[in-house]
Amino acid sequence: MGTSEPSCGSIVTMTFPRVFAIILAGGAATRMGGIDKPALIVGGRRMLDTALAAIAVADRTVVVGPHRDGIAALQVQEDPPGSGPVAGIAAGLAALGTRPTDRVLVLASDLPWIGTRTTEDLLGALERTEGADAALGIDETGRVQYLLSAWRAEALADALEALDSPVNQPMRALHPQHPVTVEVAGATDCDTPEDIERARTVGPGPLTLDEAREAVRTGVAALEPREGVLAESLGATLARTLHSADAVPRADVSAMDGYAVAGPGPWHLLDEVRPAGDTGTFSLAAGEAARIATGAHLPAGATAVLRDEFAVVEARVLATLPDSSPRDDTRRRGEDWPVGHPIAPAGTAVTSALVSAASSGEIRIATVRGPVRVHVVTTGDEIRRDGPLRPGQTRDALGPVLDRFVTSTGAVPVTNAHIRDTADGFDELLRGATDVDAIVIVGATGGGAADQLRSALARARAHMLVGRVLCRPGGSLVAAALPDGRAVLGLPGNPYAAIATLLVTLPAVVDACTGRAPQPRLHGRVANASEVGTDRTRILPVTSLPDGRWIADPGVRTAHLAGLVGRPALALIPPGAVNDTVAELIPLPAW
Ligand SMILES: Nc1nc2c(c(=O)[nH]1)N[C@H]1C(S)=C(S)[C@@H](COP(=O)(O)OP(=O)(O)OC[C@H]3O[C@@H](n4cnc5c(N)ncnc54)[C@H](O)[C@@H]3O)O[C@H]1N2
Ligand code: MOO
């Protein structure tokens, strides 16, 4: 939504509507014993702050309710205080000073799972719908949420004026002439203590995959920094910039096999040879040369290196090859890095390449966070890892390979278990496993009778970060943070769904725990994106075409991993994608 005004004398005559926001944040919720409901924390922040974050698009915002310190927005109170939401909207609109062509978002502050996508959906529906004067949010049950709406300012003013008085009016009294309803994300409100408890248990959702990754990145706490031997810290992240302890090269060295020479040629060739690793005692006087190997330190007195290809030697006299253009093949001390050169910034993953670069700079130990130690768990009474299958049993298709997939994200699997579908088993799982940073659990994410994860997380008072995602497969993905900081990732049980969601979201856990800067995403053009796309993101295996595009496999089955065999990557096909859409690619581990 643009907000620019036409500039004076400009030939640009198009104007974009300005967006204002009214957040109703009355105190003393009667159905909750008079407590300050907007200040209740759900999903790690006050519901009022969630509302404020959701209207980031607004040019100006007014919060209607009792004055609260520390709020950047304008604050007003309805007159008289406690006279209901319509009076609150009237007070808010009066304070905003809107023009008829503006748009006004009206938001309650008891909607713990709304976000900018919610308000974008409302504003989008209002703009797109011919003749609509307001867009009213509806939740998944089809219930209209008047306090989750976007209005044309003129229509809102008219609706208020149509009332004798806004005082003590029910919300439905404030009715637009031509409303459009739109199912928006996060429309479930909290009116009772039970609603709050349910919201805290079910968690936010449905979220897009990007929102889910962001929720994990911001909701999982970083590990404490530690001093670690880099070569033993693969998967960790630098907590401070890594500086070279020595110059690279650390002395003037030869870049080629050839001759160290002193002064201009021709040169008298000495018998001495300077192999790599030798610092010997001989030196060169002007007009002298000695054989030198690639990587060897230059002898004292040497001014340059002449490589073999440009050299001729006759009767112990060295000269440059006629008609050649020789260059000095010396690598000078500090030419690549002086002492103290920054090798890599904080947030860089400790990879084999970084360990190697650090050792070039004489660094062995650094301040790091991580690596993320993971307890990997499969669940399900029917799942059998070893031995013959009895009736009703299913072969464990993940236990033997999960570690490998976990490793590919940068995390380190340290323990591995299978647990039964019992409440006790899940409670024990969350209580135990205290010497890891994250627990990755396959299965039990659904709401079925045997699916224990969500209730166990609630009993453990976990902070739910992701309750559901808008993707296929894997919609029942769960992410949470336990009170002691350990992250829990609950992967949907079908093996393909489990691995697809693991590869998309476990990297975000690693980012959060270790402070790793999010990895640059890889992208590719998916030739058949419109044929395989649906209303939500699809995670599909892809193969490459000779022209560099990718083709997605629409028929992938979720009950096993056969769809990944021989495939180099997964693609995240966004909803409504057209053919040749550029999609995010997630490489599959090479083995
Ligand atoms: N009423 C509904 N039921 C289900 C829905 C739904 O939307 N409504 N979604 C289905 C989908 S899709 C998935 S995925 C699962 C997710 O539920 P859970 O995470 O609770 O998964 P489980 O029920 O524990 O297992 C699902 C499926 O996967 C098999 N499984 C689990 N672990 C393994 C393993 N290690 N090796 C092989 N197979 C495994 C398990 O036997 C089940 O068949 O919910 C659906 N139901
Ligand atoms: O969505 Mo389930 O997560 O397809 O296999």
TrEMBL record:
InterPro entries: MoaB/Mog-like_dom_sf, MoaB/Mog_dom, MobA-like_NTP_Trfase, MoeA-like, MoeA_C_domain_IV_sf, MoeA_linker/N, MoeA_linker/N_sf, Nucleotide-diphossugar_trans. Its cofactor is Mg(2+). Residues 325-338 have a biased composition (Basic and acidic residues). Its EC number is 2.10.1.1. One of its GO terms (biological process) is Mo-molybdopterin cofactor biosynthetic process. Residues 375-512 form the MoaB/Mog domain. Keywords: Magnesium, Metal-binding, Molybdenum, Molybdenum cofactor biosynthesis, Transferase. The keyword Protein biosynthesis does not apply. GO terms for cellular component: cytosol. GO terms for molecular function: metal ion binding; molybdopterin molybdotransferase activity; nucleotidyltransferase activity. Pathway: Cofactor biosynthesis; molybdopterin biosynthesis. It catalyses: adenylyl-molybdopterin + molybdate = Mo-molybdopterin + AMP + H(+). The keyword Metal-binding applies. Residues 322-343 are annotated as: Disordered. Catalyzes the insertion of molybdate into adenylated molybdopterin with the concomitant release of AMP. Belongs to the MoeA family. This is Molybdopterin molybdenumtransferase.
